[in-house]
Design a protein that fits this description.
The chain is of the alpha+beta class and 427 residues long. The protein folds into 3 domains: 158 residues, Sulfite Reductase Hemoprotein, domain 2, CATH 3.90.480.10; 117 residues, no CATH class; 100 residues, Sulfite Reductase Hemoprotein, domain 1 (2-Layer Sandwich), CATH 3.30.413.10. Helix content is 29%, strand content 23%. α1 packs antiparallel against α7, α3 crosses α4 and α4 packs antiparallel against α6.
């Protein structure tokens, strides 16, 4: 499959892969409506490979599409309200917590800001110049689940009488905060400055690239000076929380979030339709999550046990013992010409080895079909990278084996899993 900025897929920017055409659907903030998910499930069943892939920025992806069916998929996506602007098809990465508005510990509900930011981005053609991976993030509370460094981010903090939002660019804190009422203006102005500065220096429009330009941060802060005030707090670096699972409390009395494990971030149509129907039935709140999962939010506590049982019956466990918890894999040999291994099949074999066991804290495993390591998550407990002669195995960033067979690699990761659980038990 072709890679690079110009080949990053969108709905109108399909990419040819080994198994057919690939498209990616923007879902700002992961805030998807139940009927939209049902529509995508029906489209995938009829015109794609039958799966709905959730990305690490809480967007959606369909693959295995035939050229003659593409127009019907595009029409269906557009009719569902998931392609509101053709020009902004790939201006899509707007990130927030998948429990925004439900998290008892958050300072502000960022969802209104997410929706306002999305509307204003699409109303301005200047932002078509943003890199297809450029991401905005608004965090209303202390929990963060995305592992990517966002280009422009605002993080809520309490400065006494009212919450403010701390501005960061490419992961670098500006040292300034903005009032929630100025948050969207601040983000858009920052993005405009990123476009201008990147163009001057012939760099991609990415936060990390821009912040590395000498004097760039100062110019941006000067342009935003009327909206910003110095932050009296020096906060520690943000940590990434583990993926949520099971029945979780919310800020709403009598309502909970139900969060299942989604094996390899792929929903089949039956699973997607059940999630959509359940959300509609109980007037719930459906979200996509950056751990490539889903959150069925704002469900009556009295209905939770029955829903969990139904989810288990269709292959979406809420117990964390399905073996897939923490495991990620790229498309592998069936979907990508560059892949040297059936990493999805090997991931399923690994999950079978781990079935029924608890998951150690922080447990993550990446399986990549080649050294490009598409969809790689940084800081994984174990990494399997396929090469011409077998897998390279890295454990906590250190290479421990090269050119090993799949059996050896999977057994080694399973043994690591068992050792970590034994260490926990011995404490």
């Amino acid at each position: 499959m072709r890679v690079g900025e110009h080949f990053c897929p969108g709905v109108l920017h399909e990419v040819q892969a080994k198994d057919g055409l690939l498209i990616r659907i923007r879902v700002p903030g992961g805030l998807i409506e139940a009927n939209q998910l049902r529509t995508i499930a029906n489209l995938s069943r009829s015109f794609a490979d039958g799966a709905i892939e959730i990305t690490s920025r809480a967007n959606l992806q369909l693959r295995g599409i035939r050229t003659e069916d593409l127009s019907q998929i595009v029409h269906g996506i557009s009719s569902a309200g998931l392609l509101p602007s053709q020009l902004h098809d790939r201006v899509r990465n707007i990130v927030t917590s998948p429990i925004a508005g439900l998290d008892p510990g958050e300072l502000i509900d960022p969802r209104p800001l997410i929706r306002q930011l999305d509307r204003r981005l699409q109303a301005d053609t200047a932002f078509v110049s943003l890199h297809s991976k450029f991401s905005f993030a608004i965090h209303g509370g202390p929990k963060r689940f995305g592992r990517d460094t966002d280009d422009v981010s605002l993080d809520a903090l309490n400065l006494g009488a009212a919450p403010y939002l701390r501005l960061s660019l490419g992961g670098v804190s500006s040292g300034f905060v903005v009032k929630p009422g100025d948050a969207v203006d601040c983000m858009l102005a920052t993005a405009r400055m990123c476009i201008e500065l990147a163009k001057e220096s012939s760099l991609p429009v990415r936060g990390k690239a821009v912040v590395a330009i000498p004097g760039a941060m100062e110019r941006i802060l000067d342009a935003l000076s009327q909206m910003l005030q110095p932050s009296p707090l020096s906060l520690p670096a943000s940590t990434v929380n583990e993926a949520l699972l099971g029945i979780c409390p919310t800020s709403q009395d009598g309502r909970v979030s139900i969060i299942p494990s989604v094996p390899l971030g792929r929903l089949n149509p039956e699973q997607a339709r059940y999630l959509a129907d359940t959300s509609n039935e109980w007037q719930g709140d459906l979200r996509l999550a950056p751990w490539r999962g889903v959150v069925l939010g704002s469900i009556p506590k009295s209905a939770a046990d029955n829903i969990v049982a139904q989810l288990r019956a269709i292959g979406l466990s809420c117990e964390g013992r399905d073996g897939f918890q923490g495991i990620a894999a790229c498309a592998g040999i069936t979907g990508c010409d560059a892949s040297l291994a059936d990493v999805r099949g090997d991931a399923a074999s690994l999950a079978q080895r781990l079935l029924g066991h608890a998951v150690p804290s922080g447990w993550t495993v990446n399986l990549s079909g080649c050294d490009k390591q598409c969809a790689r998550r940084h800081g994984a407990t174990a990494e399997l990278v396929a090469g011409p002669l077998g897998y390279t195995l890295n454990v906590k960033g250190r290479r421990v084996a090269s050119d090993c067979s799949r059996e050896f690699a999977l057994d080694a990761v399973a043994a690591l899993h068992e050792n970590l659980l034994s260490e926990v038990a011995a404490r």
